[in-house]
Amino acid sequence: MATWTNWAGTESATPRRLHRPGSAAEIAKIVADAAVRERRVRPLGSGHSFSAIAVADSDAIDLGRWTGIVSADIDTGLVTVRSGTTLRALNAELDALGLAMTNLGDIDAQTIAGAVSTGTHGTGARFGGLATQIAALEIVLADGSVVACSPDRRADLFAAARVGLGALGVLSTVTLRCEPAYVLSAQERPEPLQQVLDGFDDFAAGSDHFEFYWFPYGRDALVKRNNRVPVGTAARPLSRARQFLDYTVTENVAFGALCRLGRTVPRLVPALGRISAAALSAREYSDTSHRVFVTRRAVRFVESEFAVPRESVHEVLAELRALVPRLECPVAFPVEVRVAAADDIWLSTAYGRDSAYIAIHQYAGMPYRQYFAAFAEIAGAVGGRPHWGKMHGLDAAVLRERYPRFGDFLRLRAEVDPEGVFTNAYLDRVLGPVR
Known about the structure:
This protein is an alpha+beta fold. Helices cover 32% and strands 24% of the residues.
C-alpha cells in the first residue's frame, strides 16, 4: 500500500499488506494467517493518535468496511457497534435512535476501536473515560478465535481490553451502555487564569463537564462549563452565522493564520499568544450533547498529555507556567486542562484515582521536543501517566511503576498473544517485548 501517515504527520509507515475485512470472520482469518506466517498485525484506526501506536510495518487492517450498529436495545441502552465505526458516525446513529453517549471527548474522528484502545476521555469530575461506558467486547485473539468478554465473562480480559492498546487482539465489536438523548447547556467565556486556578476544585465539582484552555503569555483562560438541562428543555443552539464566525473564522482560519505567522517569525509568538487570549469571547447556547462535546479542528498540531492525581494539578500547572518562558522555542498553542473520575481499568490513565488531564500542544512544524520532555518530567514527579495515543518517551520500566496492574496486563498479554502477533515498536517500548 502507499505510505500511511497519521493526522498530525508525526508517524508514517508503509505496510507490506493492507487488509480490508468486512466481517469478524474475515478479521479472524487475516489474524490467523498472519500468525501462522509469523507476521505482525496492526489495525490502522483513523490515524488520529499522535503516538506510533497504530504503525504497521507488516500487515495493516483497515476496518473501514466493518462499520455501523449491530443491535440496539432502547430500553436498556445497550448498543453493539462494529469496531471500525467512527465516533462521528456513531453519534449520528445514536441520535437517530434517541440515544447518546454519557461522556465524549472533543474529537470524533477516531474509530470506536481506536478510541477505546488508547483511553480516549472527555471531562467531568463524576464521569469516567469512554472505556467506562463499555458493557462488553468481542475481540479476535492471535490464534484467530473470536471471543466475548464482559464483567461476568472472561473478566480479566475485559478489564485489560477496555484500554488494551491493540496489544491483546483486534476488537470486532464494542457494546456500549448508552442513555436517552439529552441536551447540554454550554457556557464558554474568558476568565483570569489565576481566578480559574484558585477556584479549580469548586469549578470542577460544580459542573457536569468542566475544562479550560490557557493560552501561554496571556492572562486569561477560556473556561467551558457544560451541564445537563431538565428533560424536555428545548435546545437553543448557536445560529449558523455565529457558528461560522466563532468556529470556522476565529478558531480555525484566524488562529491558523496567527500560528503560521508565529512559525515563520518565532519571536512574535508571545505577542500573538496575548492577542489570541485577548480575542476570546463569551458564548452561551444549548444543543444535543454530542454537538456540544465535539469541536471541529482544522489547525494541525502535535500533543502530549498526562493524567495526574487531581490534588496535584496546582503544583503541575505552577511548574508548567514557570517552564514556558524559559523554553528556547515559544509555544503557539494553548494548554488544555480536564478532569475525570477514577476507574478500575488496568491501563486506564485514571486507574484508582480521580485525575486531572493536562494536555500541551505545539503548532505543527514548530519545535516541541524540549517542551514535551520538560513537561513529562514535571508530570512524572507526581506519578503522571501519559495518554497512550499522544506523544511521550516513557518505557515499560517507568510505566510499570505508575500502573498497579501493569504486571497483570503483561501476564494476560503473554497468554493471549504469546508470539507477539499484535506488537510493534511502540508496544515493545511501552510494554516491553513479548519474548
